[in-house]
Design a protein that fits this description.
- By secondary structure, the chain is mainly beta.
- 3% of the residues lie in helices and 46% in strands.
- It is built from one helix and eleven strands.
- The strands form two sheets. Strands 2, 4, 5, 6, 9, 10 and 11 form a seven-stranded mixed beta sheet that branches. The chain has a four-stranded antiparallel beta sheet with strand order 1-3-8-7, with no helix packed on it.
Length: 128
């Protein structure tokens, strides 16, 4: 059974760091692109990063470029999101999603409709 489980969220002060994990089971991770999304209260879900299948091209939304880094360990079937220099506006529930699609990844990666499966999310709160 295909399953995604996010972990690593929590409460952190502004300027701090967290590393989120998305653990996969029931499928071969290397055959999928993985995206990280977040949803703050009262806002739509926002695509923030993606790592593609194959060569692993990465994509970031402007607000997290230079602060967040996505990576994958196919052997461990886990995708990571290293988040540094966290800001209060990063507060949200963070989700990982997967897709086997490869067409137009450079324009589709931040669209939640492009993904087929989702984890349950992990809360990240940035506050002093």
């Amino acid at each position: 059974q295909l399953q995604l489980v996010e972990s690593g969220g929590g409460l952190v002060q502004p300027g701090g760091s967290l590393r989120l994990s998305c653990a996969a089971s029931g499928f071969t991770l290397e055959n999928y692109a993985i995206g990280w999304f977040r949803q703050a209260p009262g806002k739509e879900r926002e695509g923030i990063s993606c790592i593609n299948r194959g060569v692993g091209s990465t994509y970031y939304t402007d607000s997290v470029k230079g602060r967040f880094t996505i990576s994958r360990d196919n052997a461990k079937k886990t995708v990571f999101l290293q988040m540094n220099s966290l800001k209060p506006e990063d507060t949200a529930v963070y989700y990982c999603g997967i897709t086997r699609r490869i067409m137009n990844v450079h324009v589709m990666w931040n669209k939640d409709s492009w993904y087929d499966y989702w984890g349950q999310g992990t809360q990240v709160t940035v506050s002093s």
